[in-house]
Amino acid sequence: MLQNAMAAPDLPGELERLHPASFSWALTCCGREREEAEDVLQTSYMKLLDGRARFDGRSTLKSFLFGVILRTAAESRRRHRLERWRGAILGLRAPDPTPPHGPEELASRSEEVARLRGALPRLPRRQRQVLELVFGQEMTIAEAADVLGIGIGSARTHYDRGKKRLARELDRGRR
C-alpha cells in the first residue's frame, strides 16, 4: 500500500492495480461513452507517467488519479465543444455522415454560416476578439486574456457576454 510519496518505479504497478476502478470512474466522467473514457484514461495515465501531473503524497494516489481523470475528461469535453464552435465560427463544419438531401438543405447550411459570419462583426470588439481566440485559435480564456492584455475576470465576462450576444444576433437573423 502507498504511504505518502511514491518512488517512480512503483507508479506503473499502482496504476495497473487501480485500473478497474479508474476505468469505471472515467466511464462516469465521460457519460458512459466507452471510447471517450479510454482516451481520457490513457491521457490521464500519460500525464502521470510523463510528469505533467505530479503526485505529491498529500492524498491517496487513487483520489489524486481520480482528480486527474476528472480534469482530463473536462478538458476533453471542452475541446469537443470548442471544435463544434470553431467549426461554426469559421464555417468549417465537420463532415456530416449523411450528405445533404437536396439544394434546399445545402442552401440552409450556407445561410447558417453566412448568418454567423454576419453576426460576428456586430459584436463589440473585445467580445469578438475573445471568442475568436477561444474558438478560432483554440486558446483558453486565460490565454486569450494574456494575448489581449486584460484580466482573466474581464476575459470571462467578455466571453460569456459574447456568446450570449452572438446567440441573440443569430436568433434575430432567423426571424
Task: Characterize the structure shown.
This protein has 175 residues and is mostly helical. Helix content is 72%, strand content 0%. The protein has seven helices and no strands. The chain has helices at residues 10-29, 34-49, 61-90, 103-119, 125-136, 141-148, 152-174. The termini are far apart.
Kindly report how far apart the N and C termini lie.
Answer: 64 Å
SS content category:
mainly alpha
Shape: elongated
The oligomeric state of the chains shown is single chain
What does the largest sheet look like?
none
Mean pLDDT: 80
List the SSEs and their pairings.
Elements: H1 10-29, H2 34-49, H3 61-90, H4 103-119, H5 125-136, H6 141-148, H7 152-174
Primary descriptors:
7 helices, mainly alpha, single chain, 175 residues, disordered N terminus
Concise description?
The protein is mostly helical and 175 residues long. The protein is 72% helix and 0% strand.
